[in-house]
Amino acid sequence: MNISALLTSSGINTAVCAVLFSFYSILRKQPSLVSVYFGQKLAQVRSKRNDPFWFQRFIPSASWIVKSWEASEEELFAIGGLDAVVFLRAVVFSIRVFSVAGVICLFLVLPLNYFGKEMEHKHIRDEQLSVFTIENVKEGSRWLWAHCLALYVITSCACILLYSEYKSITKMRLAYITASHSHPSHFTVLVRAIPWSQEESYSVRVAKFFTDYYSSSYLSHQMIYQSGAVQKMMTDAEKIYNMLKSNTMEQHYGSRLLRCGFCGGTATSFKILSPEPGNAGTTSCLDSPDLRKKECGSALVFFRTRYAALVASAALQQPNPMSWVTDLAPEPSDLYWSNLYLPYRIFWIRKIAILVAFILFVTFFLIPVVFTQSLVHLDKLEKVFPFMKGITERTFMKQLISGYLPSVVLMIFLSIVPPIMMVFSTLEGSISRSGRKRSTCIKVLYFVIWNVFFANILTEAAIDHYQDSIMKLGDPKTIPNQLAKAVPSTATFFVTYVLTSGWASLSCELIQPFPLLCNSFYRFILGNKDDLSYGSYTFPYHTEVPRVLLFGLLGFTCSVLAPLILPFLLVYFFLAYLVYRNQILDVYVTRYQTGGLYWPIIHNTTIFSLVLSQIIALGVFGIKRSPIALSFTIPLIICTLLFNEYCRQRFHPVFKKTPARTIIDMDREDEHSGRMEEIHQKLPSAYCQIKSEPSLGKSLELNCTEIEANDRESGDIIRLDDLEATGNISARLP
């Protein structure tokens, strides 16, 4: 690939980003799309019905960029929680590290790469990208010390920033724990694999067990029922009620004289019965006589103190570890009920099956990886398939195929990975929604690191030696050398991948294509105009965290070998900083969070990226026959691993376990202030498996006259600007 192909790809992606960013600034002003672009605000205020026409709705503006930039970290923490702050800290960390790397590599390493060999250079547009990589430095060059120096500077800067961030986020996590005084999860333990008995019900066995062994701290318990279908029916009923109510309020009332042919009522009136005790049809299935049959081998056990719950969750309850399994319960909004009533003994089988399925899926995905890499090397592909010469005779077509198409194809195939990994994590038996998303994040991270980085490098090495000998690549003695040669060559593909998958993914994140289509379907096909009934989304950490970490991996491994990737990476991280802040402030709703548990993933992946870049540089220095650079790289690897071990011992335990001292101090404070009794009274109602919706629990009779009166009382039409004046909204609208 030459500079012209890179500029073609860069121009296409820049144009796409500019158009989509401008399009977004217009779409976010449309009243009918409030539920798509302001889900965070719809969780706090009631939306408007209509909006008058004003010309500014159709003029692109950058006001959202200014407001995203001005938002403070405290505001982001209040809206998005600790996970949002941790994620944005990772983006800021990348900006800082690669800014330092960009200065030293673009002004020191890049000129040395370009003039590394005595050769006649072409015009800059016709130069191959390999000329700007370490591949162009001749063997035994005395200038390779500059590459080693750049590696030391980047590693030192990254480690200093990692230590500072790890220390700061650890303090934030401890503050998050101490600030959650009223969280019922601190007093609740989830018990699974309760032994079954014909003589006693599960509930009786739980009461006897914890009364015998935790008599001083046991408070009460609540059984888990096999009622997933019932809960889904009630949720669907709530959605249908909202849609019917919305449609009724939107009708024109000139036809209210029309009568129903069966009952004689108006065509637009309906009545929802209240679930009073006297209504025979509203009796819950959990109140039926066969309640014992609906119990499963899981229960939520409540303790009098946080410390007692912590001890009970960490202890092995019986010599058989497959029975009476205890864990600290997640928050009520975080609990994933569907996995609680499944038998605990099947989860280890599921995990093995999912591991096998994951390996098979990763292996299958090598097919699109090989295909995309073959598009990058058209000159070598034409030797194998001569009929392609006619297609690539045109310069623009060749630049388009080699510079833009490969990364687009790979990005399309990668779009199916997160949903599949989410299914895998669900089947593994996660008890919380945040835990399921975190598990999906780890799987997606492993997948993209292997298939985007390692698989592309191996494919590059295989294509490069296809004409010589395939067996040469399989020789274990030559694998390090072949990989060291393949990484600088593959860097040209990684540059285009950052352009396409990075810049374009941020544009799609802003536009929200899937919620936009769902909104159009509900509004124009189903006729539902109520913005509050569409639902809202939580931040997709399982897709965005792996993407940011993958680009960090590409930056660390290619910064010294192919510095030309750094400007494109910096543009991506700057755009990501603005886009993600905007999405957290306006779009996504925080229903649950992990309390900063994504940072250990970020830290470990960054250390892996640093060590991998050092190992690759070690192989390159060996190929280039630079013993000085080679000998200085080995201590750098050892120091990086020692730094990681120190951080693992110093900070990581806080993210795995809750400090007993913190919990005991919280218990003492609540006992002295008298809040403990109030917390105990709220515990049984906090975890309610089947909740009765308030809107369904009212007896409502809606007709045209009442609706017209309500419309008059609600006043005039509310504009988008009126939402900005609401006092309890942190983020603002244009």
Topology:
Layout: H1 3-27, H2 34-37, H3 39-42, H4 63-70, H5 73-114, H6 144-179, E1 188-192, H7 202-213, E2 218-225, H8 228-250, E3 270-272, H9 291-294, E4 295-303, H10 306-314, E5 325-328, H11 347-364, H12 366-376, H13 378-384, H14 395-403, H15 405-414, H16 417-427, H17 433-464, H18 470-474, H19 479-511, H20 513-525, H21 541-558, H22 565-587, H23 598-623, H24 627-650, H25 652-656, H26 660-673, H27 675-686, E6 700-702, H28 704-714, H29 720-724
Antiparallel strand pairs: 1-4, 1-5, 2-4, 3-6
Q: Can you characterise this structure?
A:
The structure is a single chain. The chain is mostly helical. Helices cover 62% and strands 4% of the residues. It has a four-stranded antiparallel beta sheet with strand order 2-4-1-5, sandwiched between helices. It has a two-stranded antiparallel ribbon with strand order 3-6. α21 (541-558) runs antiparallel to α22 (565-587). It is globular and about 90 Å long. 38% of the residues are buried.
Shape: globular
Assign a percent range to the helix content. Answer: 55-70%
**Poorly predicted residue ranges:** 45-50, 249-289, 466-471, 692-734
Please outline the major beta sheet. Answer: 4 strands, antiparallel
Secondary-structure-based class equals mainly alpha
- Give the N-to-C terminal Cα separation: 43 Å
Mean pLDDT: 78
Proportion of residues in β-strands: under 5%
